[in-house]
Amino acid sequence: MNLTNENILTLLEEVKDPEIPVLSLVDLGVITGVEISEDDHVTVNMTPTFAGCPAMDYMKKDVERTLEKHGISNYTVNMTFDKPWDSNKLSEKGRQHLKEFGLAPPPKYDVILDLDILEHVACPYCDSENTTLRTPFGPTLCRSMHYCNDCKQMFEQFKPL
Amino acid sequence: MNEQAIKDLLYKLADDQLILGHRNSEWTGFGPILEEDIAFSSMAQDKIGHSLAFYTLLQELGEADPDTVAFTRNANQFHNSQLVELPNGEYDFSLIRHFMYDNAEIIRFEMLSQSSYEPIAKVATKLKGEVKYHVLHANTWIKNLGSSTEEAILRLQSALNEALPYALGMFEKSKYEQELIDAGVYAGEEAVKAEWLKRIQVVLEKTDLKLPDLTSINPKFGGRYGEHTEYLQPLLDEMAEVFKIDPTAEW
């Protein structure tokens, strides 16, 4: 295989978030960069979604396993805060996959996040914005819990950050 | 920049979060309602993650690895404020402590995100977004309960009076205070405290709770210099109990 940044990113599309198996790490936005040196050493830079996310170590190992599976043995995977993650880094495809999975995607915001937007999260089932924040904490660090006043269902949101 | 000054700053940031993270985790399974059980458990996980980020920066400056630093020191080697080590008490006390602590923590992170010491600035930039949720949670409950029933107001006011001297102890100055300020690493405790008072007042004014006159209160200092209450060592013993059975175990 030709080692290019694009090829590596394509391989990494295979690596999914272990808690949201429809979402690749590339679409999640936690792969912050790929570098290939002249002697074909591959460096993948990653950053955590939430600093305390217990899945990050697993995701890092999954990236390493995937590189090895494709015959790349000369690599380094770094986890850093150099380019910190925020929810605007989720790709459009990733947002669509979240919604299909039944998780409301995080709303996009400009520069500064005002958490008042949590009061009007669109329901992933019926698209109504007539929803109520039940609690900013959910089954994983990256999810909040909401109730849709129209279709009368509890739903979870991938939190804006 | 004096490396000792940076380490001192990192230790106090990391230790506060590790110890409060542990206290928060003690609510797991005991929250007054399911959502609160989940909230305190989630904040525990966040805070322990935040302490790890700062212990990792310490390791890069030559200190031992995060597990060793977290699990093998004794109480007198910890730099956390005494506020975070106090037992959870009842829910009113935990809530008031959470309100006071997180409103200070977010200001620290906002200020540190501008730090001239780049590794701290990067971590703080990331963490301030996460702590926003902790502040939202605390402020929402204080506003709701602080203007609800007589019992709720009475309990919260009594917890507030009890916690306040310890909360003021969070702003104990480091022996490197001026040096850190001059180098643009940290805006300093006075600056954090002034902003903190403004922000907690905004919330308290929407309730029936009153902030006691601060001039009559002696802050509980000492934590930043290793002086702790009788409650810290038992907490550390429990936290490290499993680790100490086999410190070399692979997890």
TrEMBL record, chain A:
<dbReference type="InterPro" id="IPR052339">
    <property type="entry name" value="Fe-S_Maturation_MIP18"/>
</dbReference>
<dbReference type="InterPro" id="IPR056572">
    <property type="entry name" value="Zn_ribbon_PaaD"/>
</dbReference>
<dbReference type="InterPro" id="IPR002744">
    <property type="entry name" value="MIP18-like"/>
</dbReference>
<feature type="domain" description="MIP18 family-like">
    <location>
        <begin position="6"/>
        <end position="68"/>
    </location>
</feature>
<dbReference type="InterPro" id="IPR011883">
    <property type="entry name" value="PaaD-like"/>
</dbReference>
<dbReference type="Pfam" id="PF01883">
    <property type="entry name" value="FeS_assembly_P"/>
</dbReference>
<dbReference type="Pfam" id="PF23451">
    <property type="entry name" value="Zn_ribbon_PaaD"/>
</dbReference>
<dbReference type="InterPro" id="IPR034904">
    <property type="entry name" value="FSCA_dom_sf"/>
</dbReference>
<feature type="domain" description="PaaD zinc beta ribbon">
    <location>
        <begin position="119"/>
        <end position="159"/>
    </location>
</feature>
<protein>
    <submittedName>
        <fullName>Phenylacetate-CoA oxygenase subunit PaaJ</fullName>
    </submittedName>
</protein>
TrEMBL record, chain B:
<dbReference type="InterPro" id="IPR012347">
    <property type="entry name" value="Ferritin-like"/>
</dbReference>
<protein>
    <submittedName>
        <fullName>Phenylacetate-CoA oxygenase subunit PaaC</fullName>
        <ecNumber>1.14.13.149</ecNumber>
    </submittedName>
</protein>
<dbReference type="GO" id="GO:0097266">
    <property type="term" value="F:phenylacetyl-CoA 1,2-epoxidase activity"/>
</dbReference>
<dbReference type="InterPro" id="IPR052703">
    <property type="entry name" value="Aromatic_CoA_ox/epox"/>
</dbReference>
<keyword id="KW-0560">Oxidoreductase</keyword>
<dbReference type="InterPro" id="IPR007814">
    <property type="entry name" value="PaaA_PaaC"/>
</dbReference>
<dbReference type="InterPro" id="IPR009078">
    <property type="entry name" value="Ferritin-like_SF"/>
</dbReference>
<dbReference type="InterPro" id="IPR011882">
    <property type="entry name" value="PaaC"/>
</dbReference>
<dbReference type="Pfam" id="PF05138">
    <property type="entry name" value="PaaA_PaaC"/>
</dbReference>
